[in-house]
Design a protein that fits this description.
Structural class of chain A: mainly beta
Structural class of chain B: mainly beta
Radius of gyration of chain B: 13 Å
Helix content of chain B: under 10%
Distance between the termini of chain B: 41 Å
Order of helices and strands of chain A: EEEEEEEEEEE
Radius of gyration of chain A: 13 Å
Distance between the termini of chain A: 36 Å
Shape of chain A: globular
Oligomer: heterodimer
Number of strands of chain B: 11
Strand content of chain A: over 45%
Chain lengths: 112, 114
């Protein structure tokens, strides 16, 4: 059990560029979640997968955001045409059956 | 809709003193309630959870929380603070059944002084 791994740890990009983050969950965890955390706030739910199926998406997830989990293992979160308001920590978590979430260390996105 | 409110964005205690971090919830259905801790540059770690069994829940590192329906509260306590407890603490609520979609509070930063 190596924990939830997120890459990269930090990403700096210019406004309008596309970025992609990767999350590798704990092996055999069937659920994978994405959250976003801004300074001084708690994490906000974005979306979650059970195996490869995306079961729920928050209204926070605009059309510029897309998440995939193609083989039910790792997941990617892509943000197109980034805006300064997208600057945040993007957290990934995984669980077995949804009981206890294990969080990764996050990807810190800075949009200049 | 469900929500949690954490009273006090910063709490400072002396080493060895009682830790009390406050959380009040709002939920239209019986809630599941959680406390998470976040150390710098690390992911959130579950301290304890309430899932409608015993109202007094014990977690890791001597933390505990009591579910009080009449007060809609789920405050986190620890009898004696340690320097290593300095971190950000988040209360969270979910609809029951699973922890799939957690709604977090804004967090309380705990400072422990000598």
């Amino acid at each position: 059990d190596t924990g939830v791994s997120q890459n990269p740890r930090h990403k700096i990009t210019k406004r309008g560029q596309n970025v992609t983050f990767r999350c590798d969950p704990i092996s055999e965890h069937n659920r994978l979640y994405w959250y976003r955390q801004t300074l001084g706030q708690g994490p906000e739910f974005l979306t979650y997968f059970q195996n490869e199926a995306q079961l729920e998406k928050s209204r926070l997830l605009s059309d510029r955001f897309s998440a995939e989990r193609p083989k039910g293992s790792f997941s990617t979160l892509e943000i197109q045409r980034t805006e300064q308001g997208d600057s945040a920590m993007y957290l990934c978590a995984s669980s077995l059956g949804g009981e206890k979430l294990f969080f990764g260390s996050g990807t810190q996105l800075s949009v200049l | 809709a469900q929500s949690v409110t954490q009273l006090g964005s910063h709490v400072s205690v002396s080493e060895g003193a009682l830790v009390l971090l406050r959380c009040n919830y709002s939920s239209s259905v019986p809630p599941y309630l959680f406390w998470y801790v976040q150390y710098p540059n690390q992911g959130l770690q579950l301290l304890l959870k309430y899932t409608s069994a015993a109202t007094l829940v014990k977690g890791i590192n001597d933390f505990e929380a009591e579910f009080k329906k009449s007060e809609t509260s789920f405050h986190l306590t620890k009898p004696s603070a340690h320097m290593s407890d300095a971190a950000e603490y988040f209360c969270a609520v979910s609809k029951g059944g699973t922890a799939s979609k957690l709604t977090f509070g804004t967090g309380t930063r705990l400072q422990v002084t000598l």
